[in-house]
Amino acid sequence: MNTPGQWLKLPLRFLRRGFLLFAVLVPLAAAEDYLSTDEFLSQVFGSSVPAAEKMWISAEQRQVAVNSIGLGRPPIRVHYWREGKRSAWILQEVGKEKPITIGVGLNAGQVETVRILAFRESRGWEVKYPYFTEQFSGATADENNRLDRRIDGITGATLSVNAVQKVVRWAVYLDRGLEPAITADAH
Amino acid sequence: MPTRIFRQIRLFLLRWHRRLGVAVSLLLIWLALSGIALNHSFDWGLDQTTGPQILQSVYRGDSIEFTSYKAGDMWVSHNGASTLYVQGRELGYCGTPFAGAVLFAGELIAACGDTLLLITPAAELIEAIDIGYDLEAAPTGIGINTSGLWLKSDDGAYAVDLNSLTFTLSTEAVNAVDWAVPGRHGDTIHAALEKASFGKGVSLTQMLLDLHSGRFFGKLGTAGMDMVAVLLILLASSGVWVWTTKPGRFRRKHSREKY
After folding, report:
1. Domain for residue B243, yes or no?
2. Number of Cβ pairs closer than 8 Å across A and B?
3. CA distance B240 to chain A (A)
C-alpha cells in the first residue's frame, strides 16, 4: 500500500527534473509578434481598403500631442486611411526606449480596433493581447483628450500600457480633425 | 541506487551547497539590490540621472564606430546600436541594420531595420514608416534613380511609393540606381557625434545595468556573471535535491499522520 510519503515522491521527482526545463522555456514565451499593415487594414475595412492619405500635423496639434496627450516626440506627418466615417491610423510611440507601432481603427469617432503591429521593447509585450486591447472598444475622448473609460493596466508593462493609451488618445484627436472632410464627403 | 552511494552524493551536494551559498551570497545581494533599482529606474528617475563622473571615464574609453552616409549636403550617422544622428545631432531611435540614407524629394530618408525614417533637412522627424512586413527581409540598401526611391533586400530591389505606402518587388533588373554608400564624415561632424553621444554622460540606469550584467568590466565581467548564474542554478538544484532527499523526511510525515 502506498504511504502519503510515496505519493509525494512522484510529483517531487517531476519538480526536480522539470524546473530547469521550465526556466528555459519561460523566456521563449516572450518572443515578439507582428501584424502587417495590410492585415490590420483588412481588419478595419474588410476587403476594400481605401488608399492611404497624408495629414500634416500643425504646430498647434503637436502642442496638444505633447502637452495634453503626453506624446514624447510626435511626427509632423502621419499616414491614415479612411472610408466614410471609418478611419485607420498607424502610429508609433516609445514605450521605454524603443517605439511600439500601434494600429487604431475608429468609426464615427469611437475606437473600434486597437492592434499592436510591432513591439521592439524587451518587456511589456503583454499589451498585444486582446484582453488588453479590447478594453478600448467603443472608447472615445473628451475635449481634454482623456478617454471616457478606465483602462486596466498590466503589471510590469506600465510604460507599454501608457504608450498604447497615448496613441489611442492621439488617434481619436486626429480623427476628430477629419470630421469636416467626412461631412463634406457625405454631402 | 545503493543507499551508501546515495548518502555520499547527498553529503557531497550538501557540503558544496553551503560553500556555493557563501561564495555567491554577496553577489546575490548586489544582484537583488541592483535588480530592484533597475525595476524602478523609471519611477526613481535613474534613467534621467547621469552616473558618477568617476565611472564615466570607463565609457569614454570606448570609441563608438559611427556609420555615416552623405544625403544631399547632410551627414546621416548611426552609432551601430539604436540611435540616428543628422549632422551630428541626435534624432532618435533607429533600429538595425542601418542600410543607409538618401535625399529624396527634399526629405532625408533613412532605412533603419524595419522602419523608414523620413526627416526634414532641419533634422526633424517627419514620419516613421513601418516596413517590417512589406519586405521579405530588412533592407540592406537604399538608393534613388530617375524613377524614384528604391530599397534593396535579400530577395531583390523594391520600388517605394511613399504616397501610397506601397513596396513593389521589381521583377526586372534595376539599372542606374544610385545606392547609398557609407562615407567618411569630417572632424567637425565626428566631434559633434562624440559630443552628442557622451554630452550628457551615461545614465545611472545604464551603469546599473552594466554593473548588474557584468558588462561594465568588459568580457571578463560578462563571463564572471555567467559563472555566477551557473553557480546559482547549481545552488538551486542542489538545494532542491538535498531538501527532497533528506532521510526520513516522508517517513516522519507519515508517522505524524498515523498517530
Report:
1. yes
2. 82
3. 7
Q: Could you tell me the residue ranges of all domains in chain A?
A: 31-186
pLDDT at B117: 94
Residues B123 and B178 in one domain: yes
**Least Cα separation, residue A14 to chain B (angstroms):** 12
Tens-place pLDDT, residues B181-197? 999 988 899 888 888 87
Please state the domain count of chain B.
2
In terms of residue numbers, what domain contains B33? 8-49+219-258
User: Would you say residue B211 lies in a domain?
Assistant: no
Q: Is A92 on the interface with B (CB under 8 A)?
A: yes
pTM of the model: 0.67
What is the per-residue pLDDT across B23-66, written as a single tens digit (0 to 9) for each?
888 888 999 999 999 888 878 888 778 878 777 777 765 667 89
pLDDT at B243: 83
Q: Tell me: do B179 and B92 sit in the same domain.
A: yes
Residue A68 carries which DSSP code?
I
Q: How far is CA A140 from CA A94, A109, B87, B113, in A?
A: 22, 6, 41, 34
Closest to B165 (Cβ–Cβ): which among A16, A79, A159? Answer: A79
Is ipTM over 0.85?
no
Is the CB of A5 inside 8 Å of chain B's CB atoms? yes
pLDDT digits (tens, 9 = 90+) for A58-71: 999 999 999 999 99
Taking an 8 Å cut-off on Cβ atoms, the answer to whether A78 and B114 are in contact is no
Tracing cell 524613377 back to the chain, one arrives at B147
Rounded-to-integer distance, Cα B124 and Cα A76, Å: 8
**Neighbour-count burial of B91, counting CB atoms closer than 10 A to its CB (0-12 exposed, 13-18 middle, 19+ buried):** buried
> Which residues lie closer than 8 Å to A31 by C-beta, 6 or more apart?
none
Residues B30, B92 within the same domain: no
Supply the mean pLDDT for chain A.
Answer: 82
Q: B244 and B120 in one domain?
A: no
Task: Tell if the CB–CB gap between A120 and B95 is shorter than 8 Å.
Answer: yes
Shortest Cα–Cα distance, B126 to chain A (Å): 5
